[in-house]
Amino acid sequence: MYRLILKMAYKNMFLRVHRTLLVITMIAVSMSMMLGIQGLYDGMAENMIEKNKRSGSGDIALFAKEYRVQKELKYRVKNASSIKEEIENIKGVEAAVLRLKAEGLLSTARKSSFAFMQGMDLEGENRFGRFEEFLKEGEMRLEKGDAIIGLELAKTLKLQIGSKVVFSTQDIRGEINSIALKIRGIVQTTNIELDNSAIFVDIGEMHRFLGTNEEEATQIAIICKDEKLIEKLVIKYPELEIKSFLELKPTMKMMQDVMLIFNSITFFIVMSVVFVGIFGVMYVSVLDRIREFGIMISVGMRYKYIRVQIFFEALFVGIIGYLSGAVLGAIILLYIKNHGVDLSSFSDALEMWGYEAVIHGTIKISYFTTTFAAIIAASFFSILIPLRKIKKLNPIEVIKADK
């Protein structure tokens, strides 16, 4: 019996071919656009977070107590090198680096600006977060007297490769000290703080400039896979302040939430369109065949079989539309992921907020599974009103009436 019902449902679905194909096309196009937008939104957020981790604090960062509030060199991790070695031996840790940071004034012959100098081990940073990939201009080299500068800070001071600058700050003794540097490279990390205010030098040279010990650092950054590592570190190093990436960058969490809201709104709009489309097809289809259903009821066909038939008609439309949309959406997502969306005409505004000019998307299985569940639900709810119309039929009156 159910085989017959399935066969009837399939044939009735194409009773009005143009109408059915129009709805299937509408579902496919709407769904593919929605998948593309979801992938683009998530790609924007994930790309920014990933680059902020690589150039900044990593997944977890360790500081001396009071350092993040006071920003003074006296609040530094005294035995940072040994702590870094211990952390690197913990299972799940991929990389760890030491950084030494000092705030001060960066000056040229004509202009000056607030900035901070960050001492780092270039080789270690490349292992930690592929820092060389951020190079925008020049070369990635940090020898004696060399410096790498953030793109926006270079624009502010009108610096080019080979330009000379002077950085002034308080050293460990509290005395104002200055160092002359030559710009070897310009980087764009899309980390707003670094791009706007950072100048990078070799950590060894910075230790000599500030008078600090080579075992010391103001930050230990960690890249890891173990989500519970922070709990272990808090217990192991109670004398240090230990923060996760999202604790240090709450704006990233806010951005994720905003993207989730955008995706939810897009999803709701598209699924509403799908529901209206399927509902329209099924309601008109039922009205066209109202006499047919009256005859079926009058000859003894039970209402539950008619209900199953109409449900499968709606389901077939939804599933064919879903499959078409999934294929088209996958193509769009693959293109966005591999080639990206070029927004170079808005590059200045995007860079101001930490985005790249070419935005790459992402692909998640959840895009397809949630959409499939929503289309099944839309197919089900779209037939409730047409079914109610059939249930109230008076078979005798319907048969007597003209088609």
CA-CA gap between termini: 27 Å
Q: Tally the helices.
A: 17
Number of strands: 12
SS content category: alpha+beta
Strand order within the widest sheet? 2-3-8-5-7-6
Q: How many domain units?
A: 2
Main beta-sheet annotation? 6 strands, mixed, barrel
> Share of helix among residues?
55-70%
Strand percentage lies at 15-25%
Average pLDDT number: 85
SSE succession = HHEHHEEHEEHEEHEHEHEHHHHEHEHHH
Rg, please? 31 Å
Characterize the overall form: elongated
* Uncertain ranges: none
How would you describe this structure to a colleague?
By secondary structure, the chain is of the alpha+beta class. The chain has two domains: 2-52 and 252-400, no CATH class; 58-248, no CATH class. 57% of the residues lie in helices and 19% in strands. The chain has helices spanning 2-13, 17-55, 67-70, 80-88, 122-129, 151-157, 192-197, 203-210, 229-236, 245-248, 250-288, 290-298, 303-339, 347-352, 365-382, 384-391, 395-400, and strands at 60-64, 93-107, 112-120, 135-138, 146-150, 164-170, 176-187, 198-202, 219-224, 240-244, 341-342, 358-359. A hairpin with a 5-residue loop joins β6 and β7 (176-187). α1 packs across α13 (303-339), α2 (17-55) runs antiparallel to α11 and α11 (250-288) runs parallel beside α15 (365-382). It is elongated, with a radius of gyration of 31 Å. The two termini are 27 Å apart. The mean pLDDT is 85.
